[in-house]
Amino acid sequence: MIIPARVRSGFTLVEALVALMLFALIAAAGTAVLSVSIDNRFAVRSATDRTAGLQRMRSLLKADLGQATGRRTRDRNGEPHPLALTGATVPDGPVLVLTRAGWSNAGGAGRSSLQRVEYSLVGNRLERRISPFLDGSRPGPPQQLLSGVTDLTVTFVQEGRDSPGPTMGPTGSTPDAVRLEFTLAGYGRLSQLFLVGGGR
Predict the structure, then answer these.
(1) Exposed, middle or buried: residue 142 (CB in 10 Å: 0-12, 13-18, 19+)?
(2) What is the tens place of the pLDDT at every residue in 73-97?
(3) Which residues face 158 on adjacent strands?
């Protein structure tokens, strides 16, 4: 009598290789999807941060220029600056300098409520600096507002006409508006117009 061979259970080598190949394909697809999701998340965060930085810059410039005054300041040698609001006067110097009102003084310190504020383009960074005192003091540490800024120009709008410099007279009159035009990485050419107020 012939006894039939026991039927063995399990996978053959070919079946195991096919299963491994399918698992590898699924794992590769999942890794690709996860990588794209992470890249998109970082891209969205970067774009959001840049948009927030642009909005902060706009808010600061709007507040500074909205409270600009005609009060001229003095340099470290005691010489008065010709204008209280001016653009670039020397290469690599500030692109916008102004005196603004509205500096809060909750602690009642013995200082003025006016501030001297300057904006500078350092490399490709737009920076804002304030001076602790109006006259004869060095600007404080810079506050970086935007990076990736190139080709920055500042013009002053008076009676509907753009001028590279303000025409502020001894009466303390100020331009009607200040226009900033610059190229921002990821955005292209931008033009921003800010009204100049009469700070007191």
Answers:
(1) middle
(2) 887 777 888 888 888 888 888 999 9
(3) 161
